[in-house]
Amino acid sequence: MHTSRNTSPLHRTSHLRHRPGSRRLTASGLAAVLAAGLLAGCAQDGGGSGSGTSADGKTVVSVGVFGVFGYKQAGLYDEYEKLNPGIKIKENSTERNEDYYPALLNHLTANSGLSDIQAVEVGNINEVANLHSDKFVDMAKAEGVDKSAWLPWKWDQAKAENGKVVGLGTDIGPMGVCYRKDLFKKAGLPTDRKDVAELWAGDWAKYVETGEDYMKDAPKGTAFTDAAAGLYNGSVSSYAVKNYDRDGKLIYKKSEAVEKSWDLAMQAVEGKMTGKLKQFDKAWDQAYANGTFASVICPPWMLGYIKEKSGPKGADAWDVAAPPRPANWGGSFLTVPEHAKNKDEAVKLAKWLTAPEQQAKLFEKQASFPSSSKALSLPAVADAEHEYFDDAPIGEIFSDAAKDIPTAVLGPKDQLIQENIGNIGILQVEQQGKSPEEGWNAAVKKIDDAVED
Questions:
Q1: Could you count the other beta carbons within 10 Å of the beta carbon of residue 156?
Q2: InterPro entries, per this entry (predicted)?
Q3: Residue 118 CA to chain centroid, in angstroms?
Q4: pTM for the full model?
């Protein structure tokens, strides 16, 4: 998978199965995970597109991605080649989006070195759509593309102001809350996933209130949640308008979403509810293994990561509950540059890879959650359970969240703003003991140095 990702090569295993009413099976695979706003995965050199014709006369369609999108691992490339004997697919994968995206912009400027299909992360799609739409095929006009197959908010993320749709949605990251039943029980909180969801239903402030209740009788050496930045991310992502207004103006300094989410994060820090961890660092991984925090805001792609880091000891402890409010963390798009060498074949492949049936297969094998509304109703998704999380009905939980996610107003520097608020501002308060004002000012300075207001 891929998403809004940061940077550390990570992999995950998914153990999904279907609820009664359809076949039950277990699938495992590798996928990339988000970290603080970019991506991570494993890779090879992403340098030359590799498009053209193979030695045996087949048309080579190149696919440029960052991290592990899972198409190769799930066998989708092989399947497409069997369905289309004249096609050979070559994937060019760069490990980190922070390296991949600047290179993509350089290739677009030079009109060379482009793959036939180029993946674009959700944090970059607004910039691509509104500053570079002339360099991409309008996928809304591609033969056989059905707008209604995608969740409306996902479709709109790739739409430019001029109406052009520069990419087809791949995965998404609807958020839930993963929690340890054993720690909740010791703290006197309910453990049934429906009862737990009721604790904070409708408001992220209730999640913090639950944290206050947890800390009153917290098991020794444990915190309610892993990181204040994770709480901030969950809260701010549940708003339609956060860093930019609907006219494209940068408003994060006076945004209701940012202000309320920052205040909740500070409340959690001051209440000593957090583990003072930076997500995806080694200390975060070790905290999973040691069971030192009771909850974490988690999209579907994080479940395999939790399973890996918590290990066998956590198999009977973890569960998943619905979030306070629907929010999204992650997701990407497949685009086709106008200067792609095999543009027509690339459009066909991008359309096929993002079709509901393929999205469902990718979820089964790689845990990449579909952005296709039609895929959500397929048994492979709708009936999915996760055995490590006490057979939690993750298909149902995350599908319900996905359908109600607000259509976010995106801006070109959303990713940079999110990173600096989380990794500079919040961490200075949480780990260094700075005041909330000092942390906020430090984040604003970093953002202002990089973004023109």
A1: 16
A2: Bact_solute-bd_prot1, SBP
A3: 18
A4: 0.84
